[in-house]
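Consider this pair:
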Amino acid sequence: MRVAIVGPAFPYKGGGAQHTTELAHRLAAAGHDVAVESWRAQYPKFLYPGQQTIDDPEGEPFPATRHALDWRRPDGWWRTGRSLRSADLVVFAVLSPVQVPSYLGILAGVGRGTRTVALCHNVLPHERKPYDRPLMRALLRRVDGVLVHSAEQAELARTLTSRPVRVAEMPAHLPVAPAGEIPPVGEVRRRLLFFGIVRPYKGLDVLLRALADGPADVGLTVAGEFWGGVDETQALIGDLGLTGRVDLRPGYVPAAEVPELFAAADALVLPYRSATASQNVWMAHEHGVPVIATRVGGFPDQVRDGVDGLLCEPGDAAGLAKAIERFYAPGEAERLRAGIERVDHGPRWDAYIDVLTGE
């Protein structure tokens, strides 16, 4: 099958670009003829205040990748679509409604003779704007099918389109620790980690309040880009009396620096208010680190409560503080770390590709 994937790829950074690239590699390994249509300019900087591109690739770039798309050139969208008419399947990697105008332009060029699928990392953003729903409705009604990563997202997609909606678990695609055994259980460092881009739905403020109510000798490292700046977080840290316990490392974390961050932490904390699919649980476990997470999105399926991590309710600082206290009970951190098992994601990728390419 000739498959074209339209979406971000290196030098763009982050999970979306990594997923597009890994998907291309996996499809090619499964025997498909694959090409990636990516961007030289994805959208204006004011729509994404963080760092958009990186100098060093995270993983192996896919060789058959073009970077012709430009948000300033709608004529190029249509031309790209025309060039994809010979494909058997065109997959649109949807990370934000901001992509919809360009994807509709490409679809106009593709026409009706080629099967098209919207692969939605999020059907709608966690923090929504008035135009998000009409834009996504326009896209999902135009494609032949939709792929999402959870039953909850499938229900949401079906409120926007009558097209077929399929569900497949998102396999791991982020940079991970070198292959081999889970790192051995080491000393308890009394330090937690919050990792990744900081946005309101991810609940860093809840974690900081829980930290203030939890064991007084536990510290926290926050590593990632801050959506909208760091001032509000710094003020909250000061108000809660946590200045000496929280290490802020704002900015994108290159893949080469990830192992050191996880090696210095006892647990990764994911205090999300809402979630769809996340790679962070898999990443933590690959580095031998347990996870304290809320019961949202795919976390309850990825974290075995009391075995390789702990679960608590979203938006509940007191409940999260109790989970942290439980984690640091004598011998508990070591026991949870010993319970981590490395997951073979090969079968997950095989199932994912079967769902994506199936008629």
Notes: The first helix runs from residue 14 to 29. The chain has 13 helices and 13 strands. Residues 191-338 form a domain with the Rossmann fold fold (CATH 3.40.50.2000).
